Amino acid sequence: MATCELKGELKYRDGQTNKFAVKSDNNLKSIIIGVKKLHSEISEVLTSLVEQEKGLNGNGREDSRVDDEEEDDGDEQEDPAETATVNSNAGPPAKRVKTRS
User: Fold this and answer.
1) What cellular-component terms does GO give this entry (predicted)?
2) pLDDT tens-digit profile of 4-41?
3) How many other β-carbons are positioned within 10 Å of the β-carbon of residue 24?
4) d(Cα 76, Cα 83) in Å, to the nearest integer?
5) What is the three-class DSSP state of 17?
6) Which of 9, 30, 63, 82 could form a disulfide with 25 if both were Cys (CB 3.0 to 4.6 A apart)?
């Protein structure tokens, strides 16, 4: 039976590329196994990249903006009347009636 090759390429932000290739037979079952193997190889590389990015952002925090927003919540007081007004308009808009001319 003829063999085929599944190929993938990962391009990094700096323009560097990493090529992946998996050989398989020319039948569906072998191709599916090859795709799964290719997926696992690429997942390993991407997982290590994500871990590196988390390390660069500082102590595993994904985004510092989320913490800043939580700190700002205590400064503002909400008016209960405004909240009640917003919640009462949550229904669908009224139907329009067509008029004949």
Assistant:
1) EKC/KEOPS complex
2) 999 999 898 888 999 999 999 989 999 999 999 999 99
3) 19
4) 14
5) strand
6) 30
